[in-house]
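User: Hi! I'm a student and our assignment asks us to look at how structure tokens line up with a sequence. Could you show me two examples?

Assistant: Happy to help. In each example below, the sequence comes first and the structure tokens follow. Example one:
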Amino acid sequence: MSSEEQHATAVLAALNAALAAAPFNGSVTAYDLDDLAEQQPKPTEYVEVTIHRRYSESSRACTDKGVDLWRVTTRYVARASVTTARNLRDATRTTLEQARLTVEAATTTPVQFETAVPIEQDSEHWYSGLDSWTYAH
């Protein structure tokens, strides 16, 4: 079984490759939580990524333990404007939706959009929203 770390590495590599291109040109980075915690001061624009195995009735009923189901969350954070957060969301969606990631030399099923939390402004005037994604590996 592959680890969360291996899956996070694959997701972050895909996102950071996309964020290196226009319109961001490497000015924005996707971070795992521990890498984000090390950033002082916190970046004014970034994508926060978490990943974990997820439950599925069909996977529990199946005796074949060769496939695990995974959930990725991507949070888009921008200090400047809701437009910037939306641009981060759009770049992430373009990168992840239907992508097949390589983890431990095996390819995942296409990444599927699951749900979203709309981009809103918090009490400290940061804009953020969240998407959830799922795939099997």
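Example two works the same way, sequence first and then tokens:
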Amino acid sequence: MTPNSTIYAGDFHDMLLLAAETERRLPAGQRPQAQAAYWPDMKLDWMSYADNDVVPGLGFASAEQVDAYDLCLRIVNVQPIADARRLLWAAAHSAAFRTRGIAWGKLAKIRHCDRRKVKRDYELALTTTVLAWNAE
């Protein structure tokens, strides 16, 4: 998808979910040195240390994923309402690496309202963002 092309709400929803997954694959920010501890954390029991089994983590984001993430950031910034932008990203992050989709109940607890209202607000934010992007 190019930055000047027309997008649809379903495509933008999929793009948001992939952008949230890409954001989790990006490297963590630099931590200031003042917060570093001088002594390593020592566990009291020798059985507390894990085995030598290696657990693979997330892979790094590819260049195409980062480009799509950047485009998604530009599209979300078209939305003039800050609460709608936060809802779009919260919904995308609640569905990242999750097979069941967006966790409407969890978002409803955070926003202190019903899950159906959260879903309705999300769909409204999604369509208004797409309409604002296509109008440019």
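Here is something you could point out in your write-up. The helical segments are 9-25, 63-76, 82-95, 104-111, 115-135.
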